Amino acid sequence: MRPVRDRRREAAKLYEYPEHLRGEIDALPRAPGVYTFHGPEGDVLPLYIGKSVDIRGRVMDHLRTPEESMLLRQSRRISHVRTAGDIGAQLLEAQLIKAQQPLYNRKLRRTTRQFSLQLHRGAVTVVNSAELDPARALMVYGLYSSPRSAMSALRRIADTHQLCYTLLGIERGVAGRPCFRAMLKQCAGACHGAEPLGDHEQRLRDALEERQVSAWPWRGAVALEERGTDMRQYHVVLDWQYLGSADTLTAARRIRGSVGQFDRDAYRILQAPILGGLHRIVPLAA
Fold first, then answer.
1. Rounded Cα–Cα distance for residues 169 and 172 (Å)
2. Whose C-alpha in 107, 148, 219, 248 is 20 to 30 A from the C-alpha of 35?
3. Taking the CA atoms of the chain, what radius of gyration do you get in angstroms?
4. pLDDT digits 0-9 by tens, 175-202
């Protein structure tokens, strides 16, 4: 079987502007939202879901790209959903991709496992999201797709800040003796008393701080107000999980949803808007 790259190159050579989609473009607005490329009517899954602050401009970018000729030839229509701004577009895109699993989307797929680093009394462990709720936990750092990627991040932190692999649990060592990296001057020496353990732990805390997962700061759900040039939306969020959007606060209060596994995509989208103070946040708890 030929490599995927070769098949894509061959498809690009056969590129023709998709005239059959020209009429679809006329219905697309120059405004924020989410767009979907649909295949033949009998297909269960959409082909591709994307978002932009300029739906029409972004879709036209697809149409000009020979490398996407396979997607374009299979597409039969293009639908869209307007949002007030980029936050709503990002949230809706992530939600739809996880729910519908489009053929050509690779990012934002549903993740069944995710991991973080947890610090307790100077010791670092890798915890599974099934065992710990990052929305409520303290001293939890980073969001990773596997234990290996979490440990790789911890190694990078240790290398950058001369932290001890032995004390961090990355490597085994003999208590009171210099670790191998200490002999190479790559560890500040907390493993054998050259650095106080308290100083080592503080440097570890400082290094991890920028990766800390923020605990959910409210007792219940909130509505984040996003205003666009011609549209306003209230995005309902609980424990860093997106439940839906509405055009009015009254409608937002009626949105209900079950909180499942911590969603790191929603967290990354929402952390700055929720904590940044630039948007109105309305608590919805009774």
1. 7
2. 248
3. 24
4. 889 999 999 999 999 999 999 999 999 9
> Beta partners for 233?
226
Mean pLDDT of 95-107: 87
pLDDT 10s digits, 106-123: 765 656 678 999 988 778
Which one of 134-138, 204-208, 210-214 scores highest in mean pLDDT? 204-208
Domains contained in the chain, number: 3
Secondary structure of 76-93 in HEC code, one letter for each residue: CEEEEEECCCHHHHHHHH
Same-domain status, 147 and 72: no
Tokens of 38: 């649909």
Residues 203 and 279 in one domain: no
Is 28 buried (19+), middle (13-18) or exposed (0-12) by CB count in 10 A?
Answer: buried
Residue 105 lies in a domain: no
SS (H, E, C) 2-16: CCHHHHHHHHHHCCC
Structure tokens at 110: 């549903």
Q: How many CB atoms lie within 10 A of CB 16?
A: 9
Q: Where is 167: in which H helix or E strand? A: helix 165-168
Q: What type of residue is 29? A: P
- Residue 74 is classified by DSSP as H
The amino acid that residue 73 corresponds to is: R
Q: What percent of the chain has pLDDT over 90?
A: 59
